[in-house]
Amino acid sequence: MSQQDDPRLVRYPASLADEYRRAGLWGSRTIAEEFHHRATLRANHPALEYGCTVYSYAELDTRSDQFAAGALELGLRPGDPVLLQVHNGPYPVIAWYGLLKAGLIPVCTLSLHRRHEISEISRRTRAVAHLVDATGPAGGFDLVGFAHEQAQGHPTLRYVLTIGAPAAADSTPVEHLGSHIPAEDARALVEQVQDAIADDDLAVFQLSGGTTGVPKVIPRLQAEYWYNATSYADWLGWDGTERVAFVGPLMHNAGIICGLHGPHAAGATLVLGSPHDPIPTLLKDTGSTDIVLGGAAYDVTLDPSLAEAHALRRVVLSGKKVPAPHFAALERLGVWAGQLFGMGEGLCLTTRRDAPRSVRADTVGTPLSPLDEVRVYEPGTEDPVPDGQAGELCCRGPYTLRGYYDAAEHNRRAFTSDGFYRTGDLVVRQDIEGHQCYSVEGRIKDLINRGGEKINAEEVEALLISHPDVTEAALVAVPDARLGERACAFLVGTRHLTLPEVRDHLDALGVAKYKWPERLEWLSEMPKANEVGKIDKKKLRALATAPIEAS
Ligand code: AMP
Predict the structure, then answer these.
(1) Considering only CA atoms, which residue is closest to atom 17 of ligand 1?
(2) Do residues 341 and 321 lie in contact, with contact meaning Cβ atoms separated by under 8 Å?
(3) Which residues are bridge partners to 528 per DSSP?
(4) I need a labelling partner for 348 at 20 to 30 A (CA). Which of 192, 335, 502, 528 fits?
(5) HSE-CB for 337 with a 13 A CA cutoff
(6) 133-172 pLDDT, tens per residue?
(7) Which atom from ligand 1 is nearest to the alpha carbon of 339?
């Protein structure tokens, strides 16, 4: 089936797509060809640094061309989805552009995902290959063995690709994939594949924290996904001289926009680190000029050794409210600080470079694109709330999804009648010194934000109730100084399981560890919010933040 006929993919209405094209926001090149274009302009400039490994734009371009040709030679076909479970490093970057160049669709799952998540996502996307990374911590989870298990009896998964694992009869290491193919031949093949791809064709699958059930799949399309990144780079005024550090998981949407496509759209250098790298040392040793810090890393701003990162010019803070001392600490260092509110579904709000201090310190700013449309509605309605009052942020625009993939029923609830995405975030719109900007005041979606990883409460509750001794379950967030939030499970049941027993149950179901509750409370009955039996989570959240009684 051609992509244009895929009923699972919700397209932009033709009139809006034309408007985005006419306004020059959507370009005519694919992501792969945008990268290649930058590579012809910046051939000898470093595109990627990871420790001692450096790839120039030309090197990364050629290697990813060959990767693409090698993947097609292996038997993969344009349009095939490929699951990614990788760590930060140079090979995932080569693989990323290589997959796009072959017309394959990267599926951005997490290396932390296990059977429960991967089996559902791979079935929903009809993944054909699974790229796994064996370079994790020694004695850690065996992703290669896991990929082989996943392929058993799976209707579409046929290829296991590996990073950091020896060659085997049933898997293909990607380190030298296609390296025997002459660079010109690989380029010609890539051009042929790219010629057949339209600007509104599917490019990438990202995952949403979602509001119900298992994670929803977000389709990101060629032109809009690249536009999202170019406008991010433009926001920060990048001109190609920057050295942009990124330490979060690169295959997250934030990683792709802020860490990979953003710097490459500007012709800048990505200085890639790992989530466990000490950030001030990385910034200092690499002479990085820019970094985005997620909520769990905000304390870096208070680290005295950050003063030694002399090249640092800009810090973007994203993921949760910014405490005043953290913002002030950056100012004392003479570093520009601003905020970003973003999501895998698209919309970004950013504080303009020239915005007054109060806008940058206390709000997440304004929409990134001039054609973003934002409404603040009374939750669950299409009734606008006045400025100054909290309501649900709803949005549509040139890089916001028009529907989750293969989720027609969910889409009816997740969008307004005129196609605005209901984000589930509560915001207040206000005027500060002539700037109309937004602040995030909470959320109505039922999830826990654990250091940037979203835990879907309903999904975990259903898994908890599947235990024979549990009759009711509710998962709520407890505030945590480092991660922002952690999950606390309230349970009602016939036998009081211990926390390790509950975790063993989730482990046996193949649930990713970051979703396991970190605190457990047993109740004789759940507090109810109404007569139809809806659990009163507000009350549970209050209970969860109260000091723990010894039981
Ligand atoms: P994700 O799609 O995983 O990037 O998560 C997006 C969600 O993270 C948003 O819908 C918000 O709930 C939350 N989020 C992102 N940026 C911010 C921010 N600056 N402040 C508060 N919450 C944020």
Answers:
(1) 319
(2) no
(3) 535
(4) 335
(5) 26
(6) 999 877 789 999 999 999 998 889 999 999 999 989 999 9
(7) 19
Residue 445 CA: which ligand 1 atom is closest?
Answer: 12
**What is the 33 CA–ligand 1 centroid distance (Å)?**
30
At 499, is the secondary structure helix, strand, or coil?
A: helix
Pocket lined around ligand 1, Cβ cut-off 6 Å: 209, 253-254, 318-320, 339, 341-344, 364, 423, 425, 440, 443, 454
Query: Does 15 score more than 80 pLDDT?
Result: yes
Residue 253: is it exposed, middle or buried by C-beta count within 10 angstroms (0-12/13-18/19+)? buried
Distance CA 343, CA 210 (A): 11
Asked whether the beta carbons of 258 and 270 are under 8 A apart, the reply is no
Q: Which atom of ligand 1 is nearest to the CA of 254?
A: 4
* CA 316 vs CA 99, 141, 236, 293: distances in Å: 29, 32, 9, 6
Contact predicate 361/336, CB 8 Å: no
pLDDT bucket at 550, cuts 50 / 70 / 90 = very low
Amino acid symbol at 348: C
In this structure, the number of other CB atoms found within 10 A of the CB of residue 343 comes to 23
Say how many Å lie between the CA of residue 524 and the centre of ligand 1: 35
Q: Which of ligand 1's atoms lies nearest the C-alpha of 253?
A: 4
Read off the amino acid at residue 431.
D
Give the chain's domains with CATH numbers: 29-41+50-198 (3.40.50.980), 231-443 (3.40.50.12780), 447-543 (3.30.300.30)
Residue 373 Cα to ligand 1 midpoint, Å, equals 18
Cα 342 to ligand 1 centroid, rounded to whole Å? 5
| Predicted confidence (pLDDT) at residue 551 exceeds the cutoff of 60 | no
- The stretch 491-498 carries a mean pLDDT of 96
For residue 11, give both structure tokens: 């397209």
CB under 8 Å to 207, separation ≥6 — which residues? 108, 109, 110, 121, 215, 216, 217, 218, 344
159 by DSSP, 3-state: which? strand
Rg, the chain, Cα only: 23
Helix, strand, or coil (residue 263): helix
Q: Which two tokens stand for residue 507?
A: 């482990």
Q: What is the pLDDT of residues 107-117, one digit of tens each?
A: 999 999 999 99
Closest residue CA from atom 4 of ligand 1 = 343
Atom 5 of ligand 1: nearest residue by CA position: 343
